[in-house]
Amino acid sequence: MADYKLAARASHPTDSVVEVKGRKIGGGNFAVIAGPCSVETEEQMLSVARDVKAAGADFLRGGAFKPRTSPYAFSGLGLDGLELLKIASAKSGLPIVTEIMSEEYLDDFARDVDVIQIGARNMQNFTLLRMVGALKKPVLLKRGLSSTIEELLNAVEYILAGGSGDVILCERGIRTYETATRNTLDLSAVPVLKERTHLPIIVDPSHGTGYWELVEPMALAAAAAGADGLIIEVHGHPEAALCDGRQSVTPQIFARLMKKIHRVREAIA
Ligand code: PEP
Ligand code: MN
């Protein structure tokens, strides 16, 4: 038995299906999470939520608490950002996916957030993993910047051991010597994880590449590789985005991508 006994495929031979407000991820169900890197304004969130919903997205993303490399960069609107997510979610009907950075806001996230994201930089924040697991809410755990697949599986075990059964894993690129892309998107993690765990695995081609032009081809490749879904950064005005504009697609490009995703899914069915 592996160290990660709850996450291991051996403990649960069939695929786990995570269900959130009627949307399913895993076990043949494909879901797309879309929205801006950061929550900026009410108008931004309402328009992007409307657009990604119309294109077929299942969940709305947007960071209210942002882990930034520089302490002087925009670090999110905090609880005010959570309020804007709630407004956009209520209007669009899309459930909320957003990142938690500290135990300080566990109660707010437990009350207001549908899927709690743990970002790459906190993948091995073991205290946070345990505390989020204890909320027994759906969780999206992203692979660490320089983490192996085994480390990711051990990290998710903390959440499962904490009590949550609904966890989605996310491949978002890893740090390698390559500098042409922001990260190196490890698509082989999809079939490797499918073999080792029953948990759903989604792919983030936005952080995985760092360039909006590369998002569509890698999203299509992720679907072809058997991913259970995608998380994609979409912004109405990427050139004016407060965070990650270079890798954000416009709603128009997102809509085109969604049509192609369906065609790839049909082709491999
Ligand atoms: C994000 O999803 O905006 C994010 C910060 O991602 P990661 O933790 O993968 O860098
Ligand atoms: Mn981002």
Q: In summary, what is this structure?
A:
The protein is of the alpha/beta class and 269 residues long.
**Could you please say which CATH topology applies here?**
TIM Barrel
Shape: globular
Look at the structure and give the CATH class. Answer: Alpha Beta
Unique bound compounds: phosphoenolpyruvate, manganese (II) ion
**Mean of the pLDDT scores?**
97
CATH architecture: Alpha-Beta Barrel
Distance N to C terminus = 32 Å
Structural features, described:
The protein has 269 residues and is an alpha/beta fold. The chain has one domain: Alpha-Beta Barrel (TIM Barrel). The chain is 38% helix and 14% strand. The chain is built from 9 helices and 10 strands. It has helices spanning 42-55, 79-92, 106-112, 126-134, 149-162, 189-196, 205-209, 212-224, 251-268, and strands spanning 18-20, 23-25, 31-35, 59-61, 96-99, 115-118, 139-142, 167-171, 201-203, 229-233. An 8-stranded parallel barrel has the order 3-4-5-6-7-8-9-10, surrounded by 7 helices. A two-stranded antiparallel sheet has the order 1-2. Strand 8, helix 6 and strand 9 form a beta-alpha-beta unit. The chain is globular. The mean pLDDT is 97. It binds phosphoenolpyruvate and manganese (II) ion. Manganese (II) ion binds next to loops.
What structural keywords apply?
alpha/beta; 9 helices; globular; binds phosphoenolpyruvate; binds manganese (II) ion; TIM Barrel; 8-stranded parallel barrel; 269 residues
